[in-house]
Amino acid sequence: MNYSAIICTYNRPKKVLELVSQLIPLLSDKGNIIVVDSSDNKNEVLINKENVSYIRSSHKNQPYQRYLGYLATDANVLFFFDDDMEVEDEQFIDKILAMFQQDAKLSGIAVKFKNKHENTSIAKIPNSKIKIKNNALKKFKNWFTGYPQLPDGAFGYCGNKGKQPIGGGKTNWVWGPSFVFKHSAAFKNFNFQLLDMFEEKLGMGEDAILGYGASKDGYLKFHDELFLIHNDQNNSTYTSNFKTYAKRVAFSRYYLSKEKARLDKANTIFPILHYIWYMHWRILGYFFNYIIRPNKSRKEMLSGFVNGFLLTFTYKWKSFSASETYWKKEAQTDLHKNKSKYE
């Protein structure tokens, strides 16, 4: 079974080199590494490194980089990595390949990892000061405000997800730092409007919706065995500014709801109404949190949520076909420029 390890990187030359160096000894003669780089400067070490296909992306757009990596290989299985991952189990590639060989219906795997640091970039986001200790009341509050507790492995509207099943099992979503798809399931029935959103710095949750799409081609599995470490360096582009982060969260929740309905072949009226209800409560919650303990970060989050919510009513969406045509042309141009480097 042929496989490719696809690493997307942006301005982390040392981290991506560390990951590549960890992966190379683990590869068999049926595996290869593809690095898709959108950094400001070329990584000269990777360009000349054996066993590595190096592709320069013309767009600083992570799902587009993943799409480039997908197009650059015809391998049966695709391992996707963020550049800040570290190998914990040196047998993990063989173990994952064995899962695919044993089950033809398996379309993807949600890879388990742990964060190396507690104080990650996501941890800096201000928490709610409105605490509910009663579990039953908390569940009711979440349900009433459009954020219900979902069954394990479920993927719902507004990007809401159930926990990954304890001990492993079927799931409908994957984590962004690392996941594995069959080539035939990756980017199947894909909506290229996602790339438009990321190009305009409005996208989030692409990993979950890519996973949900892949689950339609068989089923996804969460394997409850620690394979990787996530070494978050606290310099995530998502959380570099709380206002833009909240704007992306708010806007992307609209897309995720509509996209789930599309993949389910369901009417979009309820998902849109659910999103509006959900966002009203999120905005109200951040408003009261700001009143209780006003500070700059909570003000930025509140402003971002409002801006992102309002943008859903005015955003000029390209048609499905126009987005697909544009991004496929961009990808072919990038691959042609890099052809000699990955062949």
How does this structure look, described?
The chain has twelve helices and nine strands. The mean pLDDT is 92. It has 343 residues and is of the alpha/beta class. It is 43% helix and 17% strand. It has a domain at 3-126 and 151-235 and 320-342: Spore Coat Polysaccharide Biosynthesis Protein SpsA, Chain A, CATH 3.90.550. Strands 1, 2, 3, 4, 5, 6, 7, 8 and 9 form a nine-stranded mixed β-sheet that branches. The chain has helices at residues 13-23, 44-47, 62-71, 92-102, 135-144, 193-199, 206-215, 242-264, 269-292, 296-311, 320-337, 339-342, and strands at 3-9, 31-37, 52-56, 77-82, 85-87, 106-115, 169-171, 178-182, 219-230.
Strand fraction equals 15-25%
What string gives the helices and strands in order?
EHEHEHEEHEHEEHHEHHHHH
Fraction of residues in helices? 40-55%
What is the average per-residue confidence, as pLDDT, rounded to a whole number? 92
Which stretches are low in confidence, meaning pLDDT under 50 for 5 or more residues running? none
Largest sheet: 9 strands, mixed
CATH top level class name of the domain at 3-126 and 151-235 and 320-342: Alpha Beta
Quick tags:
nine-stranded mixed beta sheet; 343 residues; 43% helix; Spore Coat Polysaccharide Biosynthesis Protein SpsA, Chain A
